[in-house]
Structures are given as C-alpha cells and as structure tokens.
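Translate sequence into structure tokens.
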Amino acid sequence: MVLRKAGTAAAAAGVVAVGFIGLVTFGTYAASGAPQQSANRAALSPGTVPAAYQGPIQQWGSLCPEISPPMLAAQLYQESGFDPRARSGVGAQGMAQFMPETWGTYGTDGNNDGKKDVWDPMDAIASAATFDCALAKDVAKVPGDRQANLLAAYNAGPYAVTRYNGVPPYRETQGYVKNIQAMARSFTAPTAPVEVSQQSSGAIYFAQTKLGTPYLWGGEGLPSQNGRFDCSGLTQAAYASVGITLPRVANDQWYAGQHPSRDQLRPGDLVFWATDLTDPRSIHHVGIYVGGGYMINAPHTGAVIRYDKIDTREYIGATRVTSDGAQALPGRNADGSITAPSRPADPAPANPAGPAPGGQSAPANPATAAAAPAAPVSRAAVAAGPAPTGPGQTPAKS
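Result follows.
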C-alpha cells in the first residue's frame, strides 16, 4: 500500500528519542483492567465481519443459549473465510460448507424469500446456527461447558460427546473446541481494556533491526530474498521471533487477537489498512505500532522498512496478537482457499493440498475422512475449490 501521507523517518525518530524502550515496556506490561465478558453474551467487534453479514450473524448467533454471534462468526470464518462461493472438492457448498444431504435437513430460509439456497449467505448463516442448535439439543444432558460440548459434537458427533460425558479425548476435537473459542474472542467486542501482550516488545525489537531494508513484494526475509520483506512478511517474522506463528496473509493476521480501539493502542499491536472499511476481506496493509501515532512497516515497492504515521486514510483498526489467537487461525491452501479443521480419523487428503501461505503445511482434509464411529454427517468440509476472487483473499503484498 502506498501511504498517502507518509511521515518521515526523522519525525518518527522522535518517538525513539523520548524513550522508546520505556514506552514499549510500559505499554507491554501495563495493567489490563477488568476481565472481558463471557463470549456467549458478547456482541460482534466492529470491523471483524463484512458489514453485509454482521446483522444476520448477530441475529442468528443468538438462536439458542449455547451459541453466540462471535462463536458463529468464528465457525463461518474457519469454514470459508466468509466466502459465499466456497466449494470443496467433495461437494461441500457455500459460506457454511454444507454437504447437500445435510442441507436437505438443516437448510433454513434466512431472508424469507421463500427459498433455501446454500449459496445465499443469509440462508447459510441461518442454517449454520440452526445446525449448531440442533447439536446443542442432542448433547443438552451432558454435563460441563454447554458451548464446548456443542463444538465437540460438531467436530466428532453427538455420540462421542455423550459416550465420554463431555469433550472426547480426541486431539482433533479438543483442538477444534479450543481454537473456535479462542478465535471467537477476536470477533468479540471488547467491554474493557484488552489484555496486553508480553511478547510485543520482542516483536518490535526484531522490526527495528530491519529498518532501512528495501521492500520486496512477497518477501519473507529469506536468504534467497536478501533478507527483504513485504508488509505481512515483516509482521509474520517479527512475531515468529518471539514464538508466535502468524498467518502469511495480512487479512488473516487481523484475526490473531482482540481489537483495541484507537485510544487503547499499545506498542506491538498490529495496525491495518483496507480499501473498504466495512469489509475486513479488503485489508491490504499491516504494520507494527510503536507508540506516539507511529508504526514500523514495509510500505511499498521502492521504499524501505521505516517508521510511518498510522492516522491515514483507510486505517481500519488494530489487533493485539496472542499465542492462542494466532494458533486458532485456519491455514490456506496454495490456491488461497481456507483449509477446514481436521476431525477424528481423518486420513491423508486424496488430493494433497499445497503449502499454505508462508510455507506452512496445510492440515489434513476432513472432507475425505472416514466417519468417526457413530458420528453424523457433518455439514462442514474444506473449501478446496477455486480460490476466492474477492479483495483480501490473496497475500497482502503491496
């Protein structure tokens, strides 16, 4: 992204001169305030869901007590990245990735147009909530966290949850429950100051060591690239230096934690720009906030990694990165499509996926899995079809 009014490095250097390390240390370890409210009573955080879908997800995410708008948003994002055209190689369809036979049972007319259309995002959202609530009813007598039991039933089937009297001891299922609940926090509107990150100062230190490095579109700092970066490559490498693996794509990095308001920014927060401030899928640039209204970023071809002001046109918001939030995010196939979560007894994919952006291996494809014992037909499958063509679905290499 070409910043319209890029601040000079000399001006930004004032941030460092007045005590940069002290600023980072204070922002990193300051008290975080009261704990956040429970996710299943929470509203959606602005900017996390495309505006066209925010109202329906807020509405249908309250269909039963076991689900919430942030949880429903997290599921839809993990299934398709909010892509209503997503299609898997084995036939799962639409934003919520329903198989046709499951759609026949749970398909819901979400916009009252007289049709139940799997490709209609309003119907897909309503049907996803309907399916979740049906699972919640199936495991209603199982003790424990009702939302966790529902998510476990979604992944492994109601029989497994009933058999084990709670979340079954399957690595895939326990990971799915943890990841969806962690990702839901990114979709949850903060009601108190967002907890600060203890790794942020190390990420800033890494980025500082790269100041003056020429920009490279697609750069990840590899020796073959002469150590050069693009915007999301720099942020990925900065957090990798402190043990947090971020996705390669800027608009996926957006979901790696909660979203502090502008007046709550702390050094180390990721800051983002989008062409459409109502649609996070259009995010195209990211930097690392350092305090005083400045960030370190890799701006564009012909520039070097530098300090720039953040208060420019197209600023959409910020993310406070957490280990759990980053770990919960889905990967992407080589074609840019979202990889779905694995389920118990998943075999290797029939058509192995290419590496996700950033060189990470894609997880196993649950759509080709042999069913777990007594598990029902799941509505979800990997969106392994053609790559989405909407903005923000390719790496943010500006």
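Note: The radius of gyration is 21 Å.
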